[in-house]
Amino acid sequence: VVERTQALVDSKASLANAQRLARIGSWDWDLPTDHVHSSDELYRLLGVAPGSIPARLESILLITHPDDCAPVKAAVLETLKTGHSTTITFRIQIADGTERILYQQIEAMRDKQGTIVRLSGTMQDITERQRAEEKISHLAYFDNLTDLPNRQFFRMRADEALALAKRDGRTLALLFIDLDNFKRTNDTLGHTIGDYLLKAVAERLRNAVRGSDQLTRHSGQQLGRFGGDEFIALLTNIDPTAVSAVAKRLIQKLAQPLELESHTVSLTASIGISIFPNDGDDVDTLLKHADIAMYYAKRSGKNTCQFFDTSMNEAALKRLSLEKELRGALEQGEFSLHYQPQLDLVTGAIVGVEALLRWRNPRLGQVSPVDFIPLAEETGLIVTIGAWVLSTACAQAAAWLAQGLPPLRIAVNLSPCQFAQPDLVQQITDILAQTGFDARYLELEITESLLMQDVEQAIETMTALKEMGVMLAIDDFGTGYSSLSYLQRFPIDRLKIDRAFVSAITSDTGSASIALAVIAMAHSLELGVVAEGVETSEQQMWLAKNTCDEIQGYLISRPLPLQELAQLLQEHYTVDKEVGNAAGSIGAYV
Question: Which residues are 354's β-sheet partners?
Answer without folding.
Answer: 340, 411
